[in-house]
Structures are given as C-alpha cells and as structure tokens.
Amino acid sequence: MKNFFVPFLSLLLVGNISAQTVSVDSVPASKMLDVQLESVVVTGMRAGVCGARHVPMSYTLLDRRQLTATEHQNVLPTLMEEVPNLMVTSRGMMGYGVSAGGSGAMMLRGISSANGQLLVLVDGHPQYQGIFGHSIADSYQTMMTDRVEVLRGPASMMYGSNAMGGVVNIISRKLKMDTVLTNIDLGAGSFGTVQSEVSNQVKKGKFTSTVAAQFGRSDNHRPHMGITQYGGYVNLGYQFDQHWKSYLNADMTHFKASNPGPESAPLLEADQWITRGVVAMGVDNRYKRTGGTISIYDNFGRHKINDGYAVEGGSPQKRLFRSKDALAGATVTQYVNFLHGNRVTFGFDYQHIYGRAYYTNRETGEVMETPNKQSAHVHNNEVAGYVNFHQDLVEWFSLDAGIRYDHHSVVGGEWVPQAGVVFRAHRHNTIKLMASKGFRNPTTKEMYLYPPSNTELRPERLWNYELSWRNDSHVGNKVNGGVNIFYIKGDNIIQTIQKRNVNTGEIENMGVEGDLTWHINEHWRLSTNHSYLHMRFPVVAAPTYKGYVGASFQMKGWAASLGIQQVAGLYTAVGEQEEKENFTLLNAMLSYRFNRYVKLWARGENLLNRKYEINAGYPLPGANVMAGAALSF
User: Fold this and answer.
1) pTM of the full predicted structure?
2) Handedness of CA 519, 515, 481, 137 (dihedral sign)
C-alpha cells in the first residue's frame, strides 16, 4: 500500500475533482446554450436547489456531457471512475443481472446498495422494491439522465430508510429552450455486443417532453452469460405559470440474463427474466420565499428466476421462483424562507410496501407453496415527517440541522437527527463539519421469506462524522478540488447466524477522499480522484484504495480521453477464506464530429488486458472495444 498511499497524500495537499457545471443537454452546435455557473445541488435540500457551498454534505456532481462522453448505456461505469470511494461490482461486458452471481451493487465507504443501505433515486423518488428492498442496476439508464448527484454519507433525515450510506439521485432530462431535438446512437463491439438508443425531446412554450428507447445485447466473454435488454422512458412537463408546474415520468426496463456460475462450479439454465419500472407524477410550486412539491409514485417489478443446475452432476430445476412486488408512495415537501439566508423545509413521506413471492411448476405453470407461507402476500406501511433548518448566519457561516421521525408498521419508530456547519473562509474555499445518522428498516425478504427470516428484526443504524474542505467551481477557475475525512460507527447490522437473521453486525469504517480537476486550457483537462478506506469489519466488494487519473482533449471536432484506474485491497471474500484483489485498468475513448449532425466514436476498455475479478469466481473480460455513430438533428 505504500506505493499508493504516498502519492495519494501528495494529491490531497492540492485538492480533489468533481463535475461543477449546471448541465445542459447535448445538442447540435446551432442549438447549444453553454453557461457555466457555481455548482448547485437538489438532493441535499429536497425542495428546490441550493449552492453546493451552502450545504454541509459531501457531493459529487456529474452532468450529461460527462455521463455520455464514454458512450455507456448505463451510468454506473462513469460513477465508478468519477466518485471517490464508490465501487461497482460487475461480472461481464454488459449486464449486471440479479440473484446468485448478480452484480451491479454500489459500495460507498463500505456501505452497500446490495443490502439496501445505499439509496438510488430518480428525481427524488426511491427506486427499491417491496420484497428485496434494493434497486436493480440494469435500470440505471443513461438515456433518461440529465445529471447524477451522489451524496457521500447518510441522508436518512431527508430520505428515510435505505439512505443510511448515501444517495445516488438520477435527475431526468429536460430541454432548457424551445426546440425539437432527436438523437440516435448505435454501437457494436466485442463478444457480440450491440447497443442502441433513440430519443426525442420537445420544448414548446409551456410544454416539454422527452421520449427515449434503448436496446442492448451481448454474449459476454463466457459461455451461458448472454443478456438481452430493452427499455423506454417518458417525461412530460407543463408550466402553468411562473409559480406552478406539473410533471409525469414513466420508465421501464426488461432484460433476460444468464448466470454462468463461478468458474469453479459452472451452471446451466441459470436464467433471469426481470421487468422493473416506475411511474411518478407531481406538482411543483415556486414563489419568492416559499416552494415545494407534492408527488406520488409507484415502483413495480416482475421477476422470474431459474436458479439453474451444476454442469457436473446437477439436474434441471423443476420450479421457477417468481415475485410480484412494488412500493407505492407519496411525498409532500415545502420550504419557507422566513429571513434572509434562511430556509426551513417541512416534509411528509408515506410508503406502502407490498409484494408476493411464490414458485411455479416449470412444466405446468401451477403455483407451488413457498418455504414460508407468510411471504405469499405481504403489506407494510411506513410514515414519516421531518423538518430541516438552514440559516446563513453571516456571509461566511451557515448552520444546518434537521430531525425526522419514521414509523414502520412492523419494526416501529426511529428518530433520525442530522447537523452540520459550513465555513466559507474565502469566496472559493469552503470548510464543512457534519454529523448525521443513517438507518435501514429490515426488508420483507429478511422478515418473512425463506427459513432465516425473523419478524423480530429491528432497524440497522449508523452515525457518520465528517470534515471536508473544497475549492468550489466558479467561472474562470482552472483548478477545482477538495478533500474530506470521515468516521462511521454502526450497529444492529442484520446478519444470518445459525440459519436465522439477527441484528448482531457492526460497522466501524474510517477513510479519506480527495479529487482534483485542472482545466489547463480550452483544449486540455486533467482530473483525478482517490480514496482510502479502513474497515474494522471488512465486507465484500469494498477496496482499501481506489484511484483514478484521466486526461481529455478537444479540438476541431476531435475529442479524446485516456483514463487509468487503480484498485487495491478489494475484498472478494471475507472471514476465514478472506481474499483480496488488486488491478489496474486502462480505458480510452476517441470521437470525431463531422458536423452538427454526425459523430463517430470508438472506445477501448481494459487495454492492458489485465485478469481480474470483483465478484469472486467471475473473471471480467480482457481487452475489449466498442465503436459506433451518433446522429443529432
């Protein structure tokens, strides 16, 4: 680790990197409006936006240009490069899958989305489902995304259960000016991989719309590992007047993926058919001193899974696991500015968590009994209210504090406080201190499904303490960055001990994060981010060190980027069979825009052809390439 730790500390003396512009959609040059402003965030305030220098949380902000620069259909590969301390598990070139051998879990500071401890939002609405309590990575599509805000640290005071480790908020696309824009993007590459996307956006007066569809498929680099996926997205908006507007969002992803099993124990017929979607609608109000949102949403999922059988000595499954689950909810949020520099936010959340898990006979389709009859139909409710107080006491100092009470119909109530201060020591420099509590209620699966289930489970809890400094982006700044240190202490973590789920686990993590961006001139940009994590109780998929260094160049239609990522001390197994992985990845991207209508692109990944794995037993592909064309009109 000395080889990584010394240069890491050197970089921290300089600062750290993030995306710092208010994003605009990528449009042809004749329709482009390019305006750089101070960083603003939506996620930390829940209602409206606020300058990042006024909120005590640590953020990484990525706009659409960054998310589409490498032509990935999913936002996760970009997040893993750009967000300090964020690790994403994967097993193939395309597709993350679910169930045993599935991947796509995000690990942030040693807290995992696979356990529902890290919350994914789309426009502020939670994406997890009723039974398993986590979102599915294959639904995080770039086609629907304008920007992503990653809050590093607990956000349970604002967002409740599942935000105990942080929040990834995917903010959907909307045009900023009256126009009609159509984009078509096609690509193909290694292992029979094909990706395609088409979108149309309209803004005419008070009406806006975005309609998009995507298709992707890959054989991947191992037998019996193919995936076929398609999805669609619709966003409709109407601005009634300068104060009121409404919106309707809907997106759906369907995929069929196969799990080949670990190399040491390959599987046949381990197939998954998954459909996930969400529909949300709401009304926003914005006045001079107050504003807010009323919204309702429904997350739905249909899952059919064949667990497969071992190549050596196994026999085909006679039944298929199925589940129909959902999470419906309503949110009311309103803020009021009572004084200059003041904002008080009031909120109310309601969720109805429900679902059905069962098996069907593979030949006849007849419904079979589940191991726990209670799991056939489950309905739980969660109600919460919160208030958050923010005050700029003087030009250089802000105070932020809030509290939430959250009540679950089975596990009971939980108080969730949060407090922080912000010192704007210089017009470009900010120091933040933050203490926040995070929690996660047990899932339906943990309480009811399968023999380890336990209806006596209680919420998981942790506290996060953080100190950060950053040099925020302003127009004309060539160097932007910052650094933060954190300490996490948690208990009541749900573990399976002697075939029963119990609240016995602990978390004690501490670490350092830093990132830096240098705009050398109008053509060249350098960026880097690094993180070091120490865990008293190690968990799978959490690396000790993760670093990234990237360079990009643009001139006369040409755009090129080169990035190198180093991961060290990545746990692929813990306990008596503990294993760690170290690897270095080199990725490159090249594109040429002939005119405002046509762009050609090519991407190469793992160009050093390294052998490595993140999920134990699932080696990732060697050097691979993709190429394609993008049309805009």
Assistant:
1) 0.90
2) positive
